[in-house]
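Many introductory courses stop at the sequence. We go one step further.
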Amino acid sequence: MLPSEWSASDAAKGARQAKVWMEFFAGDEGAKRQSPGGTQAAAQTSRIAAIRAKHEAELMRSPNVVGVSEGIEVKRGKPTGTPCIVVYVTRKVPKAKRSKGHPLPERIEGVPVDVVEVGSVDALPK
């Protein structure tokens, strides 16, 4: 069930994103990622997780950042298959208007950084 505050436009956008990800994981890229014996892929995943952990506190100090994770880079609304560090922000800010003291990097230790707008994040009540 969708949250009551979602508009028809929000629901349609969510449905489009779900379709794109389903196609990605059903296609070649998703199959390659899920195939057993991928020791190189596992090593890369482990490396990215270590880099994310090393830089997470610094990234979280940036204004507007609400979370950090490992993930798959998305360009123009479609997954590229490229592993990355995902930085979640309440809203995307054009480069020209970003704070000089806390710019988000495009890469960290050679790993691409994908910035994803998620809106505000609130803890659920216990």
